[in-house]
C-alpha cells in the first residue's frame, strides 16, 4: 500500500461500477498527502480506453487518519463525476469509504462489493 506514505491510484469500469484498479506512484510521498504524475495518468487513461472502460474514480490511503476526505482532499477534488475512495489503515482493520466531492461539498456514497 505504500506505507508509511499514502498510496494512490485510479479506478475504471462501466457506469458507476469499478472493474479495474490502477495503482499509481505517489510523486509526493508523505503520510499525509499524495499526487499522481500527469504522464502516468495519461498513459493509464489510454489503457482504460483500450479496455473499453471509463474513468470511475480515485483512491488513496490514510495511513494515520480516518477514512474521510481531508481538507486537502476536498480542495483538490477536480472530477465532479468521480467517486473518491479513502482507505484508512491506521486501525486494526482497514476501513474503506466512498464519497462524491462536488464544489467543496462531500457526500458519503455506499459501497457494494460483488463478485
CATH architecture label:
3-Layer(aba) Sandwich
The percent range for strand residues is 35-45%
Q: What does the overall shape look like?
A: globular
What's the level 1 CATH class? Alpha Beta
Write down the domain tally.
1
Give a written overview of the molecule:
The protein has 115 residues and is α+β, with helices and mostly antiparallel strands. The chain has one domain (8-109): Cytidine Deaminase, domain 2. Helices cover 16% and strands 37% of the residues. It is built from 2 helices and 6 strands.
How would you concisely characterize the structure shown here?
This protein has 115 residues and is of the alpha+beta class. Helices cover 16% and strands 37% of the residues. A six-stranded mixed sheet has the order 2-1-3-4-5-6.
Amino acid at each position: 500500500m505504500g506505507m508509511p506514505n499514502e498510496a494512490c491510484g485510479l479506478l475504471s469500469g462501466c457506469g458507476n461500477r469499478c472493474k479495474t484498479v490502477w495503482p499509481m506512484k505517489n510523486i509526493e510521498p508523505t503520510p499525509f498527502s499524495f499526487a499522481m504524475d500527469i504522464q502516468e495518468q495519461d498513459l493509464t487513461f489510454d489503457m482504460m480506453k483500450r479496455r473499453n472502460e471509463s474513468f470511475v474514480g480515485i483512491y488513496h490511503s490514510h495511513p494515520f487518519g480516518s477514512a474521510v476526505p481531508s481538507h486537502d482532499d476536498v480542495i483538490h477534488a477536480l472530477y465532479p463525476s468521480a467517486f473518491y475512495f479513502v482507505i484508512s489503515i491506521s486501525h486494526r482493520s482497514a476501513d474503506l469509504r466512498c464519497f462524491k466531492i462536488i464544489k467543496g461539498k462531500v457526500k458519503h456514497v455506499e459501497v457494494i462489493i460483488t463478485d
